[in-house]
Amino acid sequence: KARNKIKVEFEELTIITDPREAFKAGRVIAPPRVFAMGDTNNAFNNCKYVFEDKVEIGGQEHLYLETQGSLAIPSEGKGIKLFSSTQGPTTVQKTIARVLNLKMHQVEADVLRLGGAFGGKEDQATHWAVIAALGAHITQLPVKIILNRHDDLRMTGKRHPYSVDYKIGLSDDYKILAYEVTYYQSAGACADLSTAILERTFFHTTNSYFIPNVRATGISCKTNLPPNTAFRGFGGPQAMFVIEAAIHKAADEVGIKPYQIQKNNLLKENDMFYYGQKAERANAAKCWNKAEELFHFSKKEKEVEEFNKNHLLKKKGISFMPICFGISFTNTMLNQASALIHIYSDGSISVSTAAVEMGQGVNEKMINIAAKVFSIKKKRIKVESTNTTRVANTSATAASSGADLNGNALLIACNNLLDRLRRHAAEILNINDEQHIEIIDEFVLHKKEKTGITWEELISSAYLNRVSLSSQAFYATPQIHFDRTINQGHPFAYHVYGTAITVATVDCLRGTYEIESVEVVHDFGKSINPLIDLGQAEGGIVQGIGWMTIEELVQDEKGVLKSNSLSTYKVPDIYSAPKKLQVHFLEDSENPFGPLKSKAIGEPPLMYGIGSFFAIANAIKAFKPDVKINYSSPLTHEKALMHLYQGKELIKSKKEGIESNLITEKT
């Protein structure tokens, strides 16, 4: 009845879904920003080769298994307890408090686990939480809201599409001397996280390469679409696709292999990023060289060439994809975390952090850290739900920083408790020698000898002797800073490096393709849990392949999403995944800023998927050497077919060959 009484009057405005058109119309979220180093104008004058082109980058649907949802329950004192499918419990808490005119301590947000997120629940989960909380506040009854898949697809933001112009200049020995790029970002109807995402695009403009003269301009443009949002990589993948497209374009024009430019320009130790930070522990070349050696690139390249000579209607392509991805929130204040740990009198442990478990295995990593510090069995440890009452003022689990920030906070808390326990063990043993006390495999040792005191006995004694068995700790990433007035600073704690070699096969009659193999050397640091990290790498690679190949968002002329179901929006299945997917852990890599010397794993592997676009493109070029590759992602089967039959002359020149080979060659 209430709905029927609502009357809506509206005026149709001009619909703009193209960010370039939005920019021309003056519809921008924020003023343009520029990141620059060196003198590009002068550098281009000294280049032997200069090329310009445009790149179009499509968005991507998160397609988490669990759709957006929240349950709000009224609590004492006009408060709200909220169970939300969110990556950012404090964001939800703060927004609800503001909407309901409550203090933050009156709103308790609790997250047990998520059925996937990929960035889509970092900011956009807040809407549904507020709706549920408002209903519960007014009715004083529990209110639950869960979106069905169709509504979730229609209403939520995606990965930001970009339209991009670039100009690249090379010397006669294929050094990239200058690079200019202008990003037109499709933000959607309002900002969401668009300006932050554009900033990370700036930070990854040159990917894994050192370029002495850089100028990057970016504009976040207001388009008539649902506000786009965070997605694994947070703007970094878009920047990497553009520089790789520029390199491949230059290689085509010069008549060399793209990897000749790529390898020749990899970052070296102490190279300066254009945003003011030095490359430290730069493993770009190390990963590249290891990939060449381990995966027998020279042999693989010859096999591809031989295959292409012997097959008319099927062609293979091969590509390299190096990555360099910065780890930290680029908003410095977000790089903080707290942890709370209780050891109960029976020796079991409760751990609370701000990390949200969404399938990435962060809870298991927290257990690994605590078990490692105390040298106890993992079954003794439980990770609690992420709760704003237990751990306050949390940063969202995003930017690949969940394990880093919360793991370091937990490490501090565990070591604080361990010091207390070692002191108490020395008291039990009546010795003044706590520095030689250790706990190994749930036994107390003194000078490497067992004392007979077990873990449970030590904890029980500590409790009986009034030793605190709880610890709260705080961690803030050191050394990072960034001045947005000059776009200079040290925004990242460290960088993650790696190299992928991708091989694709294209059916040049039908335009269909398969990703034959993706072989990767990745810099994991000293992995806390190799199995989890391997799973994250493999999943990220396949998700990146999907973004580059079959995941196409389609809107009608009014901006209404037409690919709004799983029958019209395709994501990789087992048949779309590479036939061979191998990930090698780079040896002898340790990270002083990661818990237990590890490196973040969430986002970087997705960018290896970019290599699939260029492997497919190279296969197309093997069939039609004069083809003009349109660097527009995703490179769907339809787009591949259109490239293969680009121009009438192709049909004429290939017709006889195709007809004569249809019987003899399997297609």
What does this structure look like?
The chain is α+β, with helices and mostly antiparallel strands. It folds into four domains: 14-61 and 158-265, Aldehyde Oxidoreductase, domain 4 (2-Layer Sandwich); 69-148, Aldehyde oxidase/xanthine dehydrogenase, molybdopterin binding domain (Aldehyde Oxidoreductase, domain 4); 286-330 and 483-667, Aldehyde Oxidoreductase, domain 4; 336-476, Aldehyde Oxidoreductase, domain 4, CATH 3.30.365.10. The chain is 32% helix and 24% strand. The chain is built from 17 helices and 24 strands. A six-stranded mixed sheet has the order 1-9-8-7-2-24. Strands 6-3-4-5-14 form a five-stranded mixed sheet, covered by helices on one side. A four-stranded mixed sheet has the order 10-21-22-23, sandwiched between helices. Helix 6 (194-203) crosses helix 7 (236-254) and helix 11 (362-374) runs parallel beside helix 12 (402-428). The longest helix has 27 residues, at 402-428. The N and C termini lie far apart (60 Å). The model is unreliable at 650-667 (pLDDT under 50).
